[in-house]
Amino acid sequence: MSTHTENQQDKTRNKLLKKLITSVMKKGFQHLRMDDIAKHMDVSRATMYKHFSSKEEVMEGVVRVFVDYIETLEELPPENDEASFGTWFQQLFGQTVSLVGTITDVFLKDLQAAYPELYDRLKVALTKRERQALEFYREGKNKGIFNPINEHFILLQDDLLLREIINAKYLLFNQISIRQVLRDYYQFKKIQLFKAEKLSKIDDSQIEPIIEHLVEKFQRTL
After folding, report:
1. Which of 32, 93, 197, 208 has CB 3.0 to 4.6 Å from 36, enough for a Cys bridge?
2. CA-closest candidate to residue 29, choices 99, 87, 115, 92
3. What pTM was estimated for this model as a whole?
4. 25-57: per-residue pLDDT in tens?
């Protein structure tokens, strides 16, 4: 099989998996049969079986989508200049919002119960990413770019506060758009993290495409 054909098959598989992810994250997957999975993928059962031979293979694919995405977060550039901290902060922000807004406790619970090896694979990737983020926050503090705040609290804030404010019920109750919430949270994080004299180093125009991509993604699922 040629590399081109393999790449096309991978793209098709990923496209099918991404159609399934929204439902799996909301309701878990333990109750799903292969017929249900095909319906969520919007293809026939026969077409689905061309790409996935079992439910475990489907879930392995879902986990791979997330692990591959997590690993797109680049290492902090070795030069570590002040501008690079602003750029990396924006990349981290975008990925954090995407992961917090997608991966649910319902899915993780089902994955741990049904396929513990896949659960461990995803947790390893998430743990590595958390270490990257903590190292980034510590490096910024050491260089006098970030305020001297507890980096573990920053991660906890993302997990709890961010998860709450991008919830559809919160948006509806407060009559606020997901776009405005993300812009407000970005400004909140930026001012909280960077020392006042360093804020001018951040190019806010670079965050807008990231936010627009997130808005488009959330509008498909809200």
Report:
1. 32
2. 115
3. 0.89
4. 988 999 999 999 999 999 999 999 999 999 999
